[in-house]
Write a sequence for this structure.
């Protein structure tokens, strides 16, 4: 698992995150169109890395996560939409 933080281009701390077993993490914030954002994180090997996030764009975007759940003995797909 990796741990890290989200900052803006002024160095303002916006939140922490930690990845799950699949290497995914989620952090909520409202981006400003004129601001650049960065994540700084520590990988499992101990190296610290810094990545810029894609620029915010006006409008909405949905991301879709699809996973399987087991409701008794039958598997069925479910979808979770985040706006």
């Amino acid at each position: 698992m990796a741990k890290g933080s989200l900052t803006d281009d002024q160095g303002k701390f916006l939140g922490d995150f930690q990845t799950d077993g699949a290497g995914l993490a989620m952090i909520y914030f409202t981006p400003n169109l004129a601001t650049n954002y960065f994540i700084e994180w520590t990988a499992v090997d101990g190296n610290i890395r810094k990545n810029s996030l894609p620029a915010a764009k006006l409008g909405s975007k949905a991301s879709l996560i699809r996973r399987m759940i087991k409701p008794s003995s039958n598997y069925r797909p479910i979808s979770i939409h985040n706006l």
